[in-house]
Amino acid sequence: MLIDGKLVSKEILEDLKQKTQKLNEKPGLAVILANDNPASKVYVNSKEKRALEIGFRSYVYRFDRNVKQTDLIKLIHELNQNPSVHGILIQLPLFNHLNAQQLIEIINPKKDVDGFHPVNVGRLHSGLKPYAVCCTPLGIMKLFEYYNIELTAKSALVIGRSNIVGRPMAELLLQKNATVTLAHSKTTNLKAIAKNSDIIISATGKANMITADMVKKGAVIIDVGIIKNLEGKLHGEVDFENIENIASYITPVPGGVGPMTIAMLMQNTYNLFKEAQNAKL
Ligand code: NAP
């Protein structure tokens, strides 16, 4: 069965739009773009578009390569103080001369819409409620929920240990009682581990990571990869064509995890807005 992230994300965004229409004050999302990477520009434009469609306030700060670390530090301090801004996102990667981690660490954790601040990472990994959870793994958890995919006692393989996908993904699966293996580039027996897994989440950015001979009949396959081929067409890292008849559920690329990431960004912005409103009472 195809996991339709486009459909699920549309429902989430529609629900947020309805809720936002009823609000006097609107949730505000600030996005900082300090990179001339074309993909980052596209991502930022679509985040801005979605935010405006729902009825959020959208603030996008675009910088050229002359921007200094101190300019961004100043901006983040201002956004932390701005009561109309509820979520702050730094689009990664940044220009090479900038220090992303230092900037992430000065975002108020209560406005850290990506869930990258060490306070939120620490809360997630200690089993405490973070102010926000990283959007991509959160979106994948929503897909499991939407399609009633059971996680308790299932063997789940997460491939890739980045801070934005693999690590938080593994933690969220663990919290739902899956037995988790977190694999990476130094893992030696990946095929054997994959073949025994009920769930495989592949997030490496490497083409053809998951081939049909690695998949057990009935496994759930989640493809996080976004790879552009020579013709500029997007594809994932799973051999979709040869696996769709073996898997019980599978995500396409595009139209699987990607749209959920944006939907979760909007959901996180809305939740941070609600928290800020409640704190005022
Ligand atoms: P990343 O930071 O580059 O991390 C890649 C991870 O994959 C690393 O942990 C690396 O291991 C591991 N890896 C690389 N080659 C491997 C191999 N041959 N076998 C096993 N593990 C291997 O990437 P990321 O930011 O997590 O993103 C991964 C992919 O997801 C990219 O294609 C990205 O574009 C995509 N993505 C999609 C969304 C979405 O919304 N759909 C969101 C975020 C990212 P080491 O740690 O040992 O180096």
Question: How would you describe what is shown here?
Answer:
The chain is an alpha/beta fold and 281 residues long. Helices cover 42% and strands 14% of the residues. It contains 10 helices and 10 strands. The chain has helices at residues 5-21, 38-54, 69-81, 100-106, 118-125, 135-146, 166-175, 190-195, 240-243, 257-280; strands at 28-33, 57-62, 87-90, 155-159, 179-183, 199-202, 220-223, 227-228, 234-235, 249-250. Helix 6 crosses helix 10. It starts with a helix and ends with a helix. The mean pLDDT is 97. The protein binds NADP nicotinamide-adenine-dinucleotide phosphate (NAP).
Write out key terms for the chains shown.
281 residues, Rossmann fold, 5-stranded parallel sheet, binds NADP nicotinamide-adenine-dinucleotide phosphate
SSE layout:
Layout: H1 5-21, E1 28-33, H2 38-54, E2 57-62, H3 69-81, E3 87-90, H4 100-106, H5 118-125, H6 135-146, E4 155-159, H7 166-175, E5 179-183, H8 190-195, E6 199-202, E7 220-223, E8 227-228, E9 234-235, H9 240-243, E10 249-250, H10 257-280
Parallel strand pairs: 1-2, 1-3, 4-5, 4-6, 6-7, 7-10
Antiparallel strand pairs: 8-9
Helix pairs in contact: 1-10, 2-10, 6-7, 6-10
Bound molecules: NADP nicotinamide-adenine-dinucleotide phosphate.
Give a short summary of the structure.
With 281 residues, the chain is α/β, with parallel strands linked by helices. The protein has helices at residues 5-21, 38-54, 69-81, 100-106, 118-125, 135-146, 166-175, 190-195, 240-243, 257-280; strands at residues 28-33, 57-62, 87-90, 155-159, 179-183, 199-202, 220-223, 227-228, 234-235, 249-250.
